[in-house]
Amino acid sequence: MFNSFLKRGLLAVCIANALCFCNSASAGADGSEPVMQITDIKVKGLYRVTKGAVLLAMPIQVGDVVTKDDISVSLKKIYATHNFDSVDAYINENGVLTIDVKERPTIVNLTFAGNDAIKTDQITEIINSQGVKVGETLNVIKLKELEASLEDYYHSMGRYQAKVNTILVYLPRNRVDVKFNFVEGVNAKIEQINIVGNKVFPEEKLIGQFELRDSVPWWNFIASRNFYSQRFNGDLETLRSYYMNRGYVRFNVESTRVEVTPDRKGVYVSIAVKEGEQYKLNDFHIIGETYGHAEEMQRIVPLEKGDIYNAAQVSHAEEILANYMGKFGYAYTKVKAITDIDDDNRIVNINFHVEPGRRIYVTNVRIVGNSITTDEVIRREIRQMDGTWLSNEAINVSKTRLNQLGFFESVEVEPKKTGMDPDSVELVTTIKERPTGSIKAGVGFGTETGLTLNGEISQDNFLGYGGKASLGINTNKYDRKIELTYNEPYFTIDGVSLGENIFYEKFKAGDANLVDYTNIRWGGGFNIGYPLDENNFIKYGFSYINNKLSQTNSFVQIQKFWDMYSDDDSSSNSIVFQNYVGSVTYVRNYLDRGVFPTEGNKQWSNVSVAVPGSDTQYYKLTADTTHFWPIDKDHDYVINFRAMAGYGNGYGTKRGFEQVLPFFENFYLGGDEWMRGFKYNSIGPRALYDYSLLGNNGVIATRDVVGGNAVVAGSLQLVVPTPFTSEGYDTKLRTTLFVDAGTLWDTTFDDSYLKQCLGNCDYLYDYSDPNNIRVSYGVSLVWMSPMGPIGFTIAEPIKKKTGDRTEFFSFTLGRTF
Fold first, then answer.
1. The predicted structure's pLDDT at residue 28
2. Beta sheet of 163-171, edge-to-edge order
3. Which of the listed residues 58, 80, 103 is the one where a domain comes to its end?
4. Which parts of the sequence belong to the POTRA domain (predicted)?
5. Which residues contact 300 (CB under 8 A, 6 or more apart)?
């Protein structure tokens, strides 16, 4: 049916010229001789097209004296409207010209079947762009071309078995349904890649730069054996860049060949290259209009004369120079590196040609998309001011600072023209807000501990004014705590922050996988923070903390502390400590955004000291760092390294003893933030108790963790695309594969107890040795839900100690690890 329809379309023009003139005795043999005068024009066969549209396409009008050629031209013009499959004409003896047309049917529906590799929306966009769409007339020639075009598209994806067929279903009133049937076949696998002409670098080294491979190790999540012409072209560019970045400026891909196997399931790829010689950078200069900045621009170019020529560094230099001019209002500066290659001496000279363009100023900054966050909160992070010269640097810093707030899913800061003035722009800041309030909760299931629950309510953007408020009401089998905190990041216009907190907590350590004691803590404090620059921040804090310890089992490690502080006349194991703690915190933040960063780094360090006058005198040093390195340009794959370390001890003396870190200030390890796969607080030194057996005095070991005064932990993670999700969810979902490692130890532990163990000795090891490392691996998924971040973790320890409590699966609401 489709082919017969196609033939009629192809023959339409021929039919139009084979005119039948009935009762036209006056017609001459020459087509240019007059036939007769037209007295009327009639059109037959119209359904959708109006008669007026046909007459408008014809050069003939009533009253004209026409020839055969005139009528032939008219029919061709009518056919050229693409509304008809065939057009005929005849004139009767009265001069009435009758146009007989067969309208093309109207497309009323487009359906697709069998397309899995290409989304229906994508196919619809392709066919609509070629004029095949609902409401348009059917053009069978164009439809046939479209079939071939879609097959070529599949072939570019490496699906050489793909076939596309169309079925036309004719309906009443000259309508038609068009059905596309796809047989996609399988992706052709790369059987072999051969590179010919390479002498400097081995073939395996060059192929190792490609995304397409003829063999892919299991650990490589980026490479693929599926042939895709677009990726192949990208790999060719990668190959060019590899050589150009190593001085081979005359490198060229001479030819490529892709051979498909007879079954069309595989391809053989051949790449012929010409490497050329290696060149060095001889000299570089700044030319063009620099408005007096040429000397400084020459200085900031990150190139060294005599180095091997590197195309990537040259491109980076272009960007640096353009951004430099952008600081002075020349936001649209173009910098072009013009290379002068000396083949005899194998050197390259570069002239960086600067075209600054117009100097642009910003009339105003406009904010779009904020329904919760106030304009003030956003504006105080924007470094581009109204009425000043447009600065690319200020725009980039503004975007980074807004992203670091963590309030927004997306941030766009774009200059847009304002009316007729070519030298002014409006800076439009478009944001998409994310829920910043959360109900933090956690649910975990351990292999030995069963179900645990906790919860907290917080708002990171309180009332839209940028302050962070939280009310934590935590109750579970080991902890009852209520804490109210508030932090105002802009207590002053200069960015000085002020934070306050008050809390009450009753902690039963024995139910938290720790040694048995009860600590009732209450207190409060404040902190003041100062920005050092855009990325560095320092904060000073002071707190009062009241600790009341009771029901404390006198385990060996606590005895020295207990002897130092307990009342000799007291018959109870209850004591109160009042401490005044000063702290200094330093933050260095170069992450690209506050939630789910993909690039940059952040460091945090803290020094806390219980000052003289406190019941206990101690200090704690803690620090952590996180780094993100994107692997691909789209940041779909990102390597993340996190690490933390802590150390604490006492200072001064008490009752002749050197002060030590109070055991209730110890570090702990294990849980969903550090050391996933291990139960919360389950790693580290355990309690030892004095024990006598058959007249021998010694100790007995337990699984009760007491913590330590030193800790180191780290995590290496690979961020990967979340399976079964569409584009745009990278700011809402994050999937990571991870390996965690960490150790917790007590520098004051007396290793002589190792020889005094009388029971459960498998639980005892040298607690002063930092080499008792635990390791785990697994996968985690975090979803930024309207209720806050929800995390799922599956983890398995691969290095542990006897007595460690493990946890295969955990679920948390309120943490973004």
1. 41
2. 106-113, 175-183, 163-171
3. 103
4. 36-104, 105-185, 188-276, 279-357, 360-434
5. 320, 321, 324
The kind and range of the H/E element at 304 are none
Q: What is the pLDDT of residues 333-352, one digit of tens each?
A: 999 999 999 999 999 999 99
In this structure, what CATH number is given to the domain that contains residue 741?
A: 2.40.160.50
What residues make up the domain containing 367? 361-433
Report H helices in 551-675. 556-565
CATH number at residue 246: 3.10.20.310
**In one letter, which amino acid is 627?**
H
Neighbours of 729 (CB within 10 A): 13
What DSSP character marks residue 251? -
Q: State residue 3's pLDDT score.
A: 45
Token look-up 């690209």 returns 592
pLDDT digits (tens, 9 = 90+) for 270-279: 999 999 999 9
Q: What are phi and psi of 162, to 5 degrees?
A: -65, 140
User: Does residue 166 have a pLDDT over 80?
Assistant: yes
Cβ–Cβ < 8 Å for 200, 131: no
Indicate whether 37 and 159 sit together in one domain: no
Secondary structure (H, E, C), 619-642: EEEEEEEEEEEECCCCCCCEEEEE
- pLDDT band at residue 4 using 50, 70 and 90 as cut-offs: very low
As a whole number of angstroms, the distance between CA 684 and CA 670 comes to 9
Domains of the chain: total: 6
Examine the domain organization and report whether 288 and 144 are in the same domain. no
Residues 533 and 633 in one domain: yes
Token digits of residue 722: 């979340």
Please check whether residues 521 and 378 belong to one and the same domain.
Answer: no
570 Cβ contact partners less than 8 Å away, ≥ 6 residues apart: none
φ, ψ dihedrals at 241, nearest 5°: -65, -40
Q: What is the pLDDT of residues 624-671, one digit of tens each?
A: 999 999 998 888 899 999 999 999 999 998 887 888 899 889 999 998
Strand partners of residue 482: 473, 504
Cβ proximity of 587 and 602 under 8 Å: yes
Q: Shortest CA distance to 318 belongs to which of 306, 295, 334?
A: 334
- Tell me the residue type at 57: A
- Residue 227's nearest CA partner among 253, 184, 265 is 265
* Boundary residue ending a domain (433, 453, 479): 433
- The three-state secondary structure class of 327 is coil
Q: Are residues 266 and 196 in the same domain?
A: yes
- 445 and 340 fall within a common domain: no
Q: What is the mean pLDDT of residues 11-35?
A: 43
717 closest CA partner among 799, 647, 816? 816
Q: Do residue 746 and residue 779 come from a single domain?
A: yes
* pLDDT tens, position by position, 415-450: 888 777 788 888 898 988 877 665 555 554 433 334
Distance in angstroms (rounded) separating the CA atoms of residues 455 and 449? 18
Q: Are residues 592 and 451 in the same domain?
A: yes
Q: Which amino acid is at 491?
A: F
In the three-class reduction of DSSP (H, G, I as helix; E, B as strand; rest coil), residue 24 is classed as coil
